[in-house]
Task: structure prediction
Amino acid sequence: MSLKQISVFLENKPGTLLSMTGLLAKNHIDMRALSIAETKDFGIVRMIVDDVYDTATVLKDAGFVHSLTPVLGVMIPDEPGGLDKVLRVLADAQVNVEYMYAFLGGKNANHAYMIFRVQNQAAAVSALSAQGIHLVDQDEVAGL
Amino acid sequence: MERYYQPEIECASREQIKAWQDERLVKQVQHVWEHMPYYRKKMEAKGLTPADIKGTEDLHKLPFLSKADLREAYPYGLLARPLKDCVRIQSTSGTTGKRVVAFYTQHDIDLWEDCCARAIVAAGGTNEDVCQVSYGYGLFTGGPGLNGGSHKVGCLTIPTSSGNTERQIMFIRDLNATILCCTPSYAAYIGETMKEMGLTPDQIPLKAGIFGAEAWSEEMRQDIQNTLGIKAYDIYGLTELSGPGVSFECSAQTGMHINEDHFIAEIIDPDTGEVLPEGAQGELVFTSITKEAFPLLRYRTRDICTLTREKCPCGRTHVKMVKPKGRTDDMLIIRGVNVFPSQIETVLLNHGYPANYQIIVDRVKSTDTLDVQVEMTPEMFTDNLGEVSRRQAELVDGLRSMLGLAAKVTLVAPKSIVRSEGKAVRVIDRRKI
Result:
């Protein structure tokens, strides 16, 4: 169940996000999900991409500070209560969610996907799997 | 009356000092040849064997070691004793972010603490004194070194470590501390704080201070001496050689006596590597002749100074190193406080970050503002926004206690700080005064 998020440091000023997306576009990197957390001075872009290794290499060569973080990619039926069920399982397992963000279902229109960054990833994986909740790995994300 | 910790060594004749150096150097070269393959290769490359080094007059034949060697040999390449014989490491962050790790046997620690004890006694310390060590304790050598020296002298030692200025002042006053050991900038800050509290020098029990680990000017010394009502002594050292106490000031305050029974000093031309005659200004190079675990031969310090063997009124015979004047031109005065770029560098390095920074000084509504722009590094970065902000706040706190004034820290993209001829422009002063 290995899914790696790439986090990138950007200064909070006009054009910095564009410089990163431009770089990814030029290198034919496909983003699957993206979220940004920011302060007044700087921001952290968090993203799921089709090819982690390529992306990390391209970013490093261009001088972006970045890091790789293990996250959970959870497939959620696109219906009322879908997310609620997942969160209940995590709460019951005493797993704290640091942050999360969504991405749309790609070619599979019946499902949405959520990315979770949790404090105890092993506990989260076993709790979710025990409830039959599908977790996506890097290969699956690449194919979406 | 001048006091000495080890008078028979500190006031030995020049002939005696040379005899010690000759004998110890020959022994040390043999030790390094046998136990440090990294240096042996350097000697072999120059066609040297230990037999070529018969005394200090042959020292110039030996190859240099530099910061780059420390990085390359990290962590064990310059270790000359089995780890089971070592009892301590100390560490300092290099300017490129790679740490320097130095190893010590118990014997090494013992000699290092002797050196610090000499400095404390030279500053007037006895077993009647209360010595407050406000250098950081931990990997940084300042705290552990002076702590050990203070014990050897028999001072009542207060290991406050750095920070928490209110508590520092409380101990100085309540426990009647007579000697203060810390960085000069922190001494200045403690002094300023006491002044703001309305304390006059005669209400402060301190009589002497031993201040090192960063560059400071004669003006800063006068300032500290006046505010705290003390005599302020400089001390010098490098983790690579042991720590503080490689050299120290005596009552003459005209240069620092190098502990020549442990370290041989040379001045070289930094460009050619050629040894310069006494009195010439150049790069200081040290050879450790008594260290067991981490014996560096001909280590280039990158510090520029001159050496003098002129007779010192204090009675000590060991050579003095005199730092060049003119460090003051780096100095900024912000809201009346002296700020050196090197202090900001120290804060970054102490936090384990490379010193890629730029200082922007401006004046907003007649108040000076200080913005320290720090280039983001992989060491500082995580996916967690709160964590990155926490690290940023730590730097703000570190700067406040080092400089004694509030500075803003802005995290900027790597390589975004303007560099000219390979060197970063450290200070941009936008004040129109």
Remarks:
- DSSP finds eleven helices and 21 strands in chain B.
